[in-house]
Amino acid sequence: MKIQLDQLEARLQALIEGSAARLFSIGKNRESLGDRLVAAMRANMHPQADGTLWAPNLFTVNLTPEAAAVLRENQAHLNQLAELLLQVGAEAGLKFPSPPVIKVEADPGLSRGEIRILAHFIMDDLIDTSTMETRQDEEKSIPAPKGAYLIVDGLELYPLEDGLINIGRSANNDLVIDDPRVSRSHAQIRAIHGRYVIFDLDSMGGTFVNKQRASQSSLYPGDVISIAGVPLIFGQDPTLDSGETQDLKSRQ
Known about the structure:
Strand order of the largest sheet: 7-6-16-15-12-13
Distance between the termini: 45 Å
CATH class of the largest domain: Alpha Beta
Structural class: alpha+beta
CATH topology of the largest domain: hypothetical protein PF0899 fold
C-alpha cells in the first residue's frame, strides 16, 4: 500500500509541475500540494470491519485570498487532480464514498505560500464509526504525538497523552464535557501516522473543524474544533514532553 500511495504522490506531483504549475507563483506551493493531498488522504483513511479501506472524498485546500482567487479560476486543473486521486487511489485498493472533490477556501490568516489541506468524508452513513469503540485499550497504547493539547472552552488546558481520547458528556470519557448539547459519546481523537485525527461518533450536535462539519479530520496547531458548540482549540509544541504539558496545565 505504501508503494502504491507513493506512486500516487509522484503522479500528482508530475501534474502539478506540468500544466498546473503556472497556477502557483510560490515554488513552495508547487512542491508541496501533491504531497499534502496524499498526506491528508493517508491520515484520514478508515478501515472497515470487512477489510475495505475507505478514503476521504472531500479535500479543502486553504490558501491566502490572493492564491485562492487564482486557483478558483482554474477549476479544470482541480478536476484533473480529483480525477487522478480517484484513478490512482482505486489502483491502490482504496474505496471512495463518491468521486473526490477538491474545493478551495480563502484563509486570511495564512502567510504567502502557505497551504493547509483538510480531508473529510461527505457521506457519513458509509463510514461505520460504531466499530471505533473496540480495541480501545490497545489503541490507547499507541505512541501519541508529542506536545499536543486542547484548550477547552477557552478555560481549561487538556494535555493529549494517549493514542486514543474519548470525548463526550458521559463520565466514562477521557475528556468529559458537561453540556446538554454534547452527546454521551460524541467524538474520538486518535493518533494516526504521527498526527492526531478527530472522529465524530454519529453525534447529534456534530463535530466541526474550522467551521466545517467533519466526520473525521486531521488536526493542525491552531485548529478550532466545535463539539456541538463547545469550542476546543488544538495546539501542539513538539519540543514539549508529556510532563511539560502537564506543567502548563498546573500553571493555569
